[in-house]
Design goal:
- The structure is a homodimer of 493-residue chains.
- Chain A has 493 residues and is of the alpha+beta class.
- Chain A contains 16 helices and 19 strands.
- In chain A, the strands form 4 sheets. In chain A, strands 12, 13, 14, 15, 16, 17, 18 and 19 form an 8-stranded antiparallel sheet that branches.
- At the A-B interface, helix 6, strand 9, helix 7, helix 8 and helix 16 of A face strand 9, helix 7, helix 8 and helix 16 of B.
Chain lengths: 493, 493
């Protein structure tokens, strides 16, 4: 990965670097902390805080400068300037990542390259069901631009009001619609990328089929800014469903929930667009900290499933199909009870209940988070055995277990016992609990990072747990595409 | 790409290589042509013809040997042996490819590595909707194994009775179900691969979400055996649709066909599983050479669309939806007439009509084939302008234009004028006609290889037409993963 690290001083004076960056993007778009201004006119003391600290406030770095290029050509120039001055680059979108992948280290030598000014929607082709957008577009803006044409861009996640599509692609974001539409990777047909040499890969494409050589697109997607900088992408759109229905159902075990999923898939096919699982404690946390959120089928002792069905026929047909499914599930003993939202407001409340869990959990106190995935068929045995192992290790610890069951993705989080000091619990137990959980994940054929990526947080864990041949290949790819280690060093690999 | 080419003699005697291969896989699985047996007991004059000549009989090479390992470990050993003896390897599945990618060159030094004996279905996980199969499984056997569990493996193409899943993945095969289910790439969750060092990448995975590092899987998929040898894969399965309906409709222009596609997508959503286009001449060729195939809506003067709808509800609902769609299309003036198959036999006849076009075309004589893709929105203008350009260049030439309109994929083939010598036409005009077609494809933002790959046939064309930055990156990836140029040299890049 090259012989330059972020801790080596740049070979030329920092002033030269800053001047060259100002030449590339204009001085109002080169931000430096107070005392390190790039020249006259550069805002001093502009507060780089938002760029230097991650969303979870777990990492706080120090940047040499933050640059905000306005178009692809300027991104390429910034890369060339940084390569020349041997300053490493941390690409940044909406900076909402959860693994510290977009935050600079504390050397004070790195350049944060913010894509936020690349926020144009370049083209929407309704007949081709595609849309070409720049990396800095906010996800919600992309959704809204599609909706204005009665089309759907289905990527949807909690941070959609502030995350950018470039970041979504760089981290291969998941979210709540993966069951039907796939991850960010499956929603992208082509990418425009600035390489480590400051060249522009013209990979935008509105094609569903293109077998002209190696799949460069998917190599950049999910590489977390370590192989190249995605500056624009062509995205897949879908017809807007004619009706969307949401239901809540309760069952006694994850085993039942998996059986319900199989039934729902067979009955609803591709119209099944959401299948979320919540354990009882997840819902109790919401009831405790966010009592204003309605709680249907309450009190709850077992497991809850949130189902969403998106139909192309119409509300009446959709309702009939969903009710037939739930009736069959009741009859087969797969669920205890069910409630179908009878209007849009009720549907939103059900989703709100599911989406409020992370917030309620934060209110309850610090906890140990795991974003894991497993084969769906192995989730019941994973939950049963890992819950037991954790109780044996630390009696009374509380599991906030919820997630996208349809994708095999659980947010399997561990909270301190009732009344215990959360900070002390985190400090003392995180490493041992991670080991118990990740060992179990591996034993069940799962992944230690389902949708949040590796970044800084899980880099060491990955080095220990990933197949050695895979790790070796990844390092070779990094060396091949970024031989001098210019892009986001010490992240991922 | 390494300093060894297939035309250099191996540094050690060929006998050593053959002995080592026999040690790796057993003598009955090392085939050599007559006069070059690997030792006693090796079948002599076994006829390597099937391994040395491609399906279209366009290329005929000469192999040093054909080896048929029986499991992944033996594949790894063969790779190690070949690396040691500096013999390059041509991986081969069902050998049904159309671009010469699986056929050895004529040096007589290459080893053909046939995966056909790796034909076990390792696991089927119904709750997880996945299936792990070895590379040499015939596609149809994979489909049938899924169907035995009432599940669907949707990859479907003309060669399914003889092509292998390993070859399908190595070439990122397309076929008739891409509109709904995607290409081979989208149907694969993980791969097991033997690397150029003879190591085994344990990349099998039944996970829908896994963000632990770079996407190695998609790099091997579509690399046509030039980066590694896929030995097994975990595939996505789907519930078997409750009903499948097929219809034929006629319209006057590609423009109308594109408008019909948009309407069908909006009305049928994900239940629209097939949307094929045929020009009048395609159907006339079938009528001329395969008169036993029924021709509904005949005679035909314009364009025909084959629609397929796969529904999870039931035959009655499906029929109603399809008829409502066709009624709306008639009313909107998008189609002239339509016929819905009223039973399975009729549906098969409609598909047979579509699938017989290549055969009818071959009966008519040699022709110039183009497997291209375009943004769907640009297909009408592409067809109009390119048809006109070809008529201007060579008056009377006949266009056999058919394909997967839903994916933007056309098989845009050019046949000699009625009565002209096909061989002479091919010889004299192929290069100029390719230039006209491929220039038009590029001008319309399309691809010169939609689903068949590059192989040998389009390698020079790719070198001229692909984005230079992309080509440079592809060469770096080849050098990084196969530094000595062991795998399928002079193919793709």
């Amino acid at each position: 990965m090259g012989n330059r690290t972020a801790t080596q001083p740049p070979p030329t004076g920092g002033g030269d670097l800053l001047n060259a960056l100002v030449q590339a993007v204009g001085e109002s778009h080169v931000l430096t902390g107070s005392g390190s201004g790039s020249g006259s006119g550069t805002p001093s003391g502009t507060g780089l805080e938002a760029y230097e600290r991650d969303w979870r406030k777990r990492y706080h770095g120090r940047a040499r400068a933050v640059v905000r290029p306005g178009n692809t050509q300027e991104v390429a120039q910034v890369v060339q300037v940084c390569a020349l001055h041997r300053a490493t680059i941390v690409p940044q979108g909406g900076h909402t990542g959860l693994v510290g992948g977009g935050t600079p280290d504390d050397s004070g030598t790195q350049v944060v390259l913010s894509l936020q000014r690349l926020n144009r929607i370049r083209e929407l082709d309704a007949d081709n069901l595609t849309m070409t957008v720049e990396a800095g577009c906010i996800l919600q803006a992309v959704q809204e631009a599609a909706a204005a044409h009665q089309l759907l861009f289905p990527l949807s996640l909690a941070a959609e009001g502030s995350c950018t599509i470039g970041g979504n692609l760089a981290t291969n974001a998941g979210g709540t619609q993966v069951l039907r539409y796939g991850n960010a990777r499956e929603l992208c047909l082509g990418v425009e990328v600035v390489t480590a040499e400051g060249q522009v890969l013209q990979g935008l494409s509105g094609l569903r089929k293109d077998n002209t050589g190696y799949d460069l697109r998917d190599l950049y997607i999910g590489s977390e800014g370590t192989l190249g900088i995605i500056t624009a992408a062509t995205l897949k759109l879908f017809p807007m469903p004619a009706a969307t229905l949401t239901a809540l159902a309760t069952c006694t075990s994850p085993h039942q929930a998996v059986a319900l999923l199989a039934l729902a898939r067979a009955r609803l096919g591709a119209t099944l667009t959401g299948f979320e699982l919540m354990n009882a404690f997840s819902r109790e946390l919401v009831a405790r900290h966010l009592p204003q959120i309605p709680q249907p089928l309450w009190p709850v002792s077992g497991w809850s499933v949130l189902l969403e069905q998106s139909d192309d026929e119409g509300p009446a047909q959709a309702q009939q199909r969903l009710e037939t499914l739930l009736g069959a599930a009741l009859e087969a003993g797969l669920i205890e009870d069910a409630a179908v939202a009878s209007n849009l407001a009720q549907a939103r409340e059900l989703w709100h209940l599911r989406e409020a869990i992370p917030l309620a959990q934060a209110e309850e106190g610090l906890n140990i988070k795991h974003d894991i995935s497993l084969p769906v068929s192995r989730i019941p045995s994973f939950i049963e055995s890992t819950d037991a192992a954790l109780q044996a290790f630390h009696p009374g610890c509380r599991l906030v277990n919820f997630g996208h069951l349809g994708d095999g993705n659980l947010h399997y989080n561990v909270q301190a016992p009732e009344g215990a000091q959360a900070a002390a619990f985190l400090h003392d137990q995180e490493s041992a609990i991670n080991r118990i959980v990740y060992d179990a994940v591996q034993a069940h054929g799962g992944s230690i990072s389902a949708e949040h990526g590796i970044g800084r947080l899980k880099r060491d864990e990955l080095a220990q747990r990933k197949d050695a041949v895979a790790l070796g290949l990844m390092k070779r790819l990094k060396a091949a595409l970024d031989p001098d280690g210019l892009f986001n060093p010490n992240r991922v690999v």
